[in-house]
Amino acid sequence: MVYRYRIATVFGGSGFIGRHLIRRLARTGCVIRVPSRQPADAAFLRTLGSVGQIVPLPVTIRDDRSLAYAIRGADLVINLIGILAPSGGGSSFEAVQAELPGRIARIAKQEGVARLVQMSAIGADAASPSGYASSKAEGERRVLEAFPEATILRPSIVFGPEDGFFNRFGAMSLVSPFLPLIGGGKTRFQPVYVGDVCDAVMQALATPDSMGRTYELGGPRVYTFKELMQLVLKETGRYKRLLEIPWWLATLQGAVLEHLPGKMLTRDQVRLLRKDNVVSGTLPGLAELGVTPTAAEVIIPTYMDKFRIGGRFAAHGAADGPQPGNGGPQPRA
Q1: Listing from the earlier edge strand, what are the strands of the sheet with 115-119?
Q2: Cα angle vertex 15, ends 256, 121, to 5°?
Q3: Beta strand 223-224 with 188-189: parallel, antiparallel or unpaired?
Q4: What pLDDT was estimated at residue 329?
Q5: Which of 139, 148, 301, 307 fits as disulfide partner to 101, beta carbons 3.0 to 4.6 Å?
Q6: What pTM does this model have?
Q7: Model confidence band, residue 264 (pLDDT cutoffs 50, 70, 90)
């Protein structure tokens, strides 16, 4: 690989994907700016590079002058910012996932940036009833309108030590007598390892042919939602019932839970779950970028062990109740 980028600006660099990507970018020797409303929140990233290499910057994302300050002089811009649910105060899907990417792309083009990478998501669809999916699609459209050479990456569910999916259900297994199967647990997913997503970014940056192209990033195996919940229970060593939640009831629960702190479930997420989250097969993916996908079963045990009975150092397979095949009641779906 040949890297020719001297200064990179990474929006969303202090998030889950960002911290893994910045470690890789730092190895190339480029200076990395990490714009943030609270620069102190990104200070932990400094240790991922040499002294002075990683620079948290204050930014007001609603102010184009502030965005231009963060971008000016960079030859590489990466936008990782995204939300799973609106949080008020102007943090709507439209503002964060449609308007902001378009503004970053427009300013990047004005400032003479050489490369732009936009992190989107599988399922991005302008016609989707989900605000998350439709805003992702609109963000892609605005990015390419302003910066046609941009590279768009669409990952499925991203897993890794700090992920918001397996960790959420692992924590739920500590306190809940069941794990939910929304819509019967039949929705299909193709989880992709955060390290593979970051490798895809790095490969795209080293490949001029990736400019102006969209890639779908999925792992080596497709799972149903039910199979993912079974994987959670296997790795936590906990016996819990898998309870089917019909769509209408999940929608009702989302209408309540979306108003509570943490937003464990929203109506928009229920709408999103009605559609499979797997690669389409019509767009290039990890293989075209030279990245071999990593199986979830290889990585998940390295961080889900903290949810086991007795904690991280308990024997793998310890359980909190009768187990299937050991004379206890069988799990019901």
Answers
A1: 54-58, 31-36, 7-11, 76-79, 115-119, 151-155, 214-217
A2: 70
A3: antiparallel
A4: 41
A5: 139
A6: 0.91
A7: confident
Structure tokens that stand for 198 in this block: 């970051």
Q: What is the C-alpha to C-alpha distance for residues 97 and 119, in angstroms, rounded to an integer?
A: 10
Side chain identity, residue 95: A
Q: Yes or no: say if 200 and 158 are a contact pair by the CB < 8 Å rule.
A: no
Cβ neighbours of 58 (radius 10 Å):
13
pLDDT per position as a tens digit, 128-145: 999 999 999 999 999 999
For residues 14 and 35, the answer to whether their CB atoms sit within 8 Å is: no
With H, G, I as helix, E, B as strand and everything else as coil, classify residue 131. helix
pLDDT digits (tens, 9 = 90+) for 274-292: 999 999 999 999 999 999 9
User: Strand 7-11 to strand 76-79: parallel, antiparallel, or no bridges (unpaired)?
Assistant: parallel
| N-to-C CA span, the chain | 48
Report which DSSP code applies to 76: E
Question: Which pLDDT does position 330 carry in this prediction?
Answer: 42
Q: How far apart are CA 22 and CA 7, in angstroms?
A: 12
- Residue 87 has a pLDDT of 81
Whose CA is closest to 4, among 67, 62, 70, 74? 74
Q: Which residues contact 242 (CB under 8 A, 6 or more apart)?
A: 178, 179, 181, 185, 226, 229, 230, 331, 332, 333
* Encoded amino acid at 147, one letter: F
- Locus of tokens 């980028």: 5
